[in-house]
Amino acid sequence: MASSYWRSSLPTASWSFFLLPVIPSSLVSFLACPTMPISWNIFTSDSAGNPLKPLQSGSFMLSTRPLYIPGRDLRTSPSFSHEPEYIFLPMSYSCESGVDTCYCPIIGKCEYSNYTLDLNKLQSLGTHVGNHNRNYYFTLTATNNAGLSSTEHIDILVDDSPPERGIVLEGPVDGNDIDYTSENSFIVHWFGFIDHESDIKMYRIAIANSCLSTDDLESPHQDIILQYKELPSTEQSVVMNYNNTGKVFTTVVAYNYAMEPSKAVCSDGILRDTTPPKLKNIRVSHAKWRETLFCDGATTFLLTSNMEKIILTIKYPDFQRTCFQINQSMNECNQMIQSLPTRIMENDDAIPEILLNTIPIYTTKEFAFIPSDHIHIDWEIDDGKSQIDDFYIGIARYENDVPCVPTLLDYKPTHRNTRFSFHHAGIGSNEPFYILLKAVNKANLQSTTAIGPFLIDDTPPEYNNIPVVEIKGMSIYISWSKDTFYDAEQRSNIQTIYFQFGHDDVMVTELLEWTLTHSKKCVSGDFCFSYPLSNLQHADTAQGLLFYANVYIYNIVGHFKELRTPVFRLPTMYPPGKGHHLPVEDH
After folding, report:
1. Where are the domains of the chain?
2. DSSP state for residue 350 in the 8-state scheme
3. Cα dist. 21→62, 115, 137, 347 in Å?
4. pTM
5. What percent of the chain has a predicted confidence (pLDDT) above 70?
6. Which of 4, 405, 494, 508 has its CA 20 to 30 A from that of 148?
């Protein structure tokens, strides 16, 4: 007995019969047809079911006399009696040599082997449309001229309802839905497709740049379909391949055993991204270093004391040649220079070449300084495709090579915040370190940037001796040597000093700035500060006031030490007046 399913009206059916007489139970095909014919084929076979060749011993020859088929049609339909209805084949079957439906032995006439029976009575009564979710039965008996018979029973379930829609997700079975990937293949799984009558027979799965319809999957060779697969109902997942970048959608259609398709179900899509996230505009609050130049091929950056970069467009051939020969490379881990904030300098051609030649070239041993162990860092992200999964912050020891893994403080997540603070990180003032910032996107691509090396400098600078004020010509000079002022953490000379002149408790000038980068060559001493004498003489209102200079020595992070020079007197700004010579009489 064979069981079959139809969508609605009872279709054309085709069976194959083998003689001794044997009718196999396999159903060849079902097609919907309004005339309701039933077709079958008859061949000869031995008792093992193997087809016999012509002239083989024991073969049976079929006559062209019609067979008869006792039929019991639609027994569950109220329009028909439960008694069987006998329907006989007509006498009009004929066979000509060479017709595909004929069997022609070497000896004897060709015999017709394909028979079709029109169930016209059902159609004339209007009962050829089956009821949904009902079983119908056919009994087919074939008798040859030797009086031998074979009977086959066919059960038919009418199913005119499509399967219920399910859910389609990208990702492994029993796993979460994934929206991003960096791989060239991904898993799709689905569940919830149900057919209560004939069950699910198969699935059709396709990926495309947009959601597809059921009709689109009926013609799977369309250009809009990137990949197409058919799977039996036992499968609930499949691996789909996609070598391009961008977002694709997965569409699944389920078919029941009546080949009725469900509505197309589309996933929310998956985006393939092969570009790791890029960190930019990284700022460490209050961090400072000395100004340097960074040469990257034909591009020259001025790295400011605030840890910002300026792209220089100067046209000095000698300087460009020198910078191009240096060509500092940026390795995979140390992307710090590229990730620093960029500032635009107007009219950078105004920077004289002689000044550029005094600015040192950046090296990875260039230290930046933080004024305390309260470290705050913020950044921005440049990732145009995948969303960020999270950021991670760690601290690594200073070594000769730029580190890529934290060795002092392991990575901590920021929960997708673009800022992070360390409070009392436990790092000493004499312990240089790097801050490692790692970004991971939802395609599981990551990038790591090492910022530093840093030193925590929480002490002010010191001095070995107090400079002396000298008046030479029309200027006031304060001179000092390289070892006069120093900072225990900083390895370079003091960069900034402020001077302010006064007398008694009165300050007669504003704070006057001196910077190392703008210092001039001195007659005596390694460094010096000069101030016009006449500007101070106007404050000498009492003739002979004792003046002094307050000196504020700043280190690079802003801590300062205040000291006062020995007092000094100013020469008068007025020349001596004319005197009178009076004779002295002797008494």
Report:
1. 2-158, 167-272, 279-456, 462-569
2. G
3. 11, 16, 21, 104
4. 0.67
5. 71
6. 4
